Fold this protein.
Amino acid sequence: MNAPSHLLPTLTAIREVMAEHILPLEPDFLNPHLGFRSLLPRLQQVRQHIKDRGLWAPHLPKTYGGMGLTLSEFAHISEELGRSPLGHYAFNCQAPDIGNMELLLAHATDEQKEKYFLPLARGDIRSCFSMTEPEYPGSNPAWLGAVAVKEADTYSISGHKWFTSSADGAAFAVVMAETDPHAEKYRRASMIIVPMDTPGLTLVRNVSVMGHTGEDYATHAEIRYENCRVPLKNLLGPEGEGFALAQERLGPGRIHHCMRWIGISERAFELMCQYAATRQVAPGKLLGEQGAVQGWIAESRAEINAARLLVLHTAEKIDAEGQYAARDDISLIKFYVAGILQRVLDRAIQVHGALGVTDDLPLAYWYRHERAARIYDGPDEVHKASVAKRIFQRYA
Ligand SMILES: Cc1cc2nc3c(=O)[nH]c(=O)nc-3n(C[C@H](O)[C@H](O)[C@H](O)COP(=O)(O)OP(=O)(O)OC[C@H]3O[C@@H](n4cnc5c(N)ncnc54)[C@H](O)[C@@H]3O)c2cc1C
C-alpha cells in the first residue's frame, strides 16, 4: 500500500532531514564510548531545524505545534523515521513520550495540560511510564504491587517498578498504582502523574540491557516509590480507570512500534541487498549469486510487504472504527511484525558476516535492543492467546 499522494511532499522532506541531519549522527550514537547525553546539543539543533520546516511532532494536532495527522497517515511517517534509531526522538514522537502525550491530550485537566503536556509537546521536557514491576507479571496488568493511598489532599505512593524506560533525565512519570484494592479487578488501579524530583522517588539504577546501561533517554530504570506524596489533582483521568487508560495508550502505541519496526526492516533489507550486490566471495563472484542469500532477500521482501499491509490496514481500522473494533488486528500485528523484524535483522547480519555484528552498522544495535519487541507491550504468547480465544468463540 503506497502512501497517499498528499503525504508525498512530507515524506520527501522527512527523507531529506533523515539523510542530511540524522544519519550523520548515527556513528556517534553507536559508539559505545560516547553516551546519549553527548549527542543532545546536536540533536537539539536538528530538532529546531525540524520545527522550522514544519515537520515537528507529526502525531499531534496543529494547535499544539504538530502536523495534525491521522494514525494511518502517521504510520507512513513512522516507518520513515524508524530507519534510524534516532528518527523518532528527533521528531519528538519517541516512545514513551508519544504515548504519554496522547494520554495527556485525551485525559489531562487544563492545569495538567499546562504543566506537563505543553512542555512535552514542545520537546522542552521528557517523561516516562512506570507500570511494570519486578515482583509481578507485567503481562497481567490487573495484578500490581504498587499502591496509592489517600492521605489528606495527597496520594502517598509506594511501589517498586522497573523497565521505566527513559526515566533518567525525565521530568515526570505516569505511575500506575492500585487506588482501591477492593474494586472489581480492572478498576483497582489509577494513573498518577509524579514529578521525578518528588521526595520518596528513587531512581535505583539504569538496568543493564544486552550489555548496555545507557544514559538519559536511552535507558530502562528501576525505581522505588516510598511514601512518595503528590497532590490528589495529579490523578490522570478518573480514579480506577488506570487499566482502561493503559489499554487506550497501547492501541496506537502498537501501530507506532510496528511501523518503526518496518522502517528498521527496510533499512536492514537495503543494507543486506547493497552488500549482497557488491561483496565478492571469489574474484568476480558476488555474494548475491548464492541461492541462500537470494532466498533470504526474497523472503524478507515478501514478509516486509505483508507486514506493512497488515499494519496499515489496522491503523485505518482504528481511525475508522476505534480501537475496540481493531483489537484482534492490533494483537496480530504486534507479534507478527516483531517476528519479521527479528528474522530480517538476523538475515541482514548473516549476509554481512563479521561486519554485521560490529557497531559500524546499526544492525547489531537493533538486534540487541529489538529482541525486546516480542516482550514489551504484551509478549507474543499473550497476544496469540487472546486472538485465539476470540476465534474459538466463533466455533464453540
Ligand atoms: C525494552 C523494554 C522496555 C520496556 N519499557 C517499559 C516502560 O517504559 N514502562 C513499563 O511500565 N514497562 C516497560 N517494559 C516492561 C514490559 O511491558 C514487560 O516486560 C511486559 O509487559 C512483560 O512483563 P514481564 O516482563 O513482567 O513478564 P511476565 O509477565 O513475567 O511474563 C514472562 C513470560 O511469560 C510468558 N507469558 C506471560 N503471560 C502469559 C500468558 N498469559 N500466556 C502464555 N505465556 C505467557 C511470556 O513468554 C512472557 O514473556 C519494557 C520492557 C522491555 C523489555
Observations:
- Residues 5-122 form a domain with the Butyryl-Coa Dehydrogenase, subunit A; domain 1 fold (CATH 1.10.540.10).
- Residues 96, 129-132, 137-139, 163-165, 220, 372, 375-376, 379, 381-382, 385 surround flavin-adenine dinucleotide (CB under 6 Å).
